[in-house]
Write a structure and sequence with these properties.
The protein has 257 residues and is mainly alpha-helical. The chain contains ten helices and five strands; from the N terminus they run αββαααααβββαααα. The radius of gyration is 21 Å and the shape is globular.
Length: 257
């Protein structure tokens, strides 16, 4: 399933089980109704703390005179982990309180880590964090890739200026009512429920694990696109020999980014 070969997809993704990162840390796989009750915007804000990449906050880093290419996603998490209250992290990590962790340096290798001040046996190092981030990205269909990796300061400045302008425009449009903030989960539910092959309705879909709603949404979208492509192949308007990516023709595609 995953590129790092440490997640059992049948058990911890399709099976919907909680994912044990190690003996002390388990990631909870929430139901749709739990995310609804917790608050969708708040849920994704919490999720972002664990999966964001330096590119995602390149503007903020630039304003602090930090090159987003000079830091890692582990660096970002290390700086804010001990500030995440359990009232927020509980939706993904239950009773584990990240505010109990303190930044430390491992005397054996000189690498930074987070150690639980009440139980020093509980430690989060970069390897543990990467397991956490990889699993959360996988079940939420979040790409591991960095969209733009520029090589010189001029191109980087151009990229960041463009990101800033887009963000400012979006904020102005939302404030002026030109664009509405939309619920991605609601959109996925509407799309899936109104598909003839989806067995859940608007009420029962709430009892589905959120990651399985994602799986259903992307699989249904894939199937519809495949049908269009196969129709083109049948009518002679599409030549499969010239297709660079034949994943669209698969009945069981790898849909994760």
């Amino acid at each position: 399933m995953d590129k790092n070969n440490f997640i059992d997809e049948l058990k911890y993704s399709v099976g919907g089980s909680n994912y044990p990162v190690n003996a002390y840390i388990t990631i909870y796989n929430p139901y749709v109704y739990e995310v609804r009750d917790f608050g969708e915007d708040l849920y994704y804000s919490v999720l972002n703390l664990f999966v964001r990449k330096p590119y995602d906050i390149a503007v903020e880093l630039f304003d602090k005179k930090i090159d987003y290419q000079s830091v890692s996603d582990w660096d970002l998490f290390f700086e804010i982990a001990a500030k995440i209250p359990v009232e927020l992290s509980c939706i993904l990590f239950g009773k584990l309180n990240f505010m109990d962790f303190v930044p430390c340096i491992n005397p054996e290798n000189g690498f930074k880590c987070l150690v639980n001040q009440h139980d020093p046996g509980i430690c989060i190092d970069e390897a543990v964090y990467r397991k956490i981030a990889a699993y959360l990205r996988y079940i939420h269909f979040i790409s591991e890739k960095v969209e733009y990796d520029v090589g010189n300061s001029m191109a980087k400045k151009f990229l960041i200026d463009r990101m800033r302008r887009k963000r400012e425009k979006l904020a102005k449009d939302l404030e002026a009512g030109k664009r509405k903030s939309c619920s991605s989960i609601s959109s996925m539910i509407k799309y899936c429920v109104n598909n003839a092959g989806f067995k859940y309705d608007y009420e029962t879909v709430m009892n589905l694990k959120l990651n399985l709603l994602y799986e259903s949404y992307y699989m249904i979208a894939h199937d519809k696109e495949r049908d269009h492509v196969l129709s083109g192949v049948y009518h002679g308007t599409i030549d499969t020999a010239k297709m660079k990516d034949k994943n669209i023709l698969s009945m069981i595609p790898d849909l994760h980014p």
